[in-house]
Amino acid sequence: MHLLHWKPMTWSLGVFAACTFVLCIVYGLLVPKAFHMTQLLEIALPGFQWLSVGAFALGLVESFLYGAYAGLVYTPIHNFFARRFGVRSGG
User: How far apart are CA 8 and CA 64, in angstroms?
Assistant: First the structure.
């Protein structure tokens, strides 16, 4: 285990969240309406409404920002505890 760097962690989680959003949209387009996750997406992503090009772009940006925020918050917390418990910096 090693200390994390904030830039790769932030970008990784941002891109992961954006890819997850795209997969949710693709899932919603492929399955019957009864199985859509529309309500969850509309609650979690302010301003998002199923589905237009503008809503897709907004949801993609918001998803990336949520993931990036998670990376920015998680990385220093992880590093704090890694240092506290004696984990050495790697790489």
Answer: 14
Prediction pTM value: 0.85
Type of residue found at 84: R
Max CA distance (Å), the chain = 51
Q: List, for residues 24-75, the tens digit of each pLDDT value.
A: 999 999 999 888 888 889 999 999 998 899 999 999 999 999 999 999 999 9
The separation between CA 39 and the C-alpha centre of its own chain, rounded to angstroms, equals 18
Residues 6, 89: Cα–Cα separation, whole Å = 14
Q: 60 and 3 in contact (C-beta within 8 Å)? A: no
Helix residue ranges, H only, 31-52: 38-44
Amino acid at the residue 53: V
Residue 56, Cα to own-chain centre: how many angstroms?
15
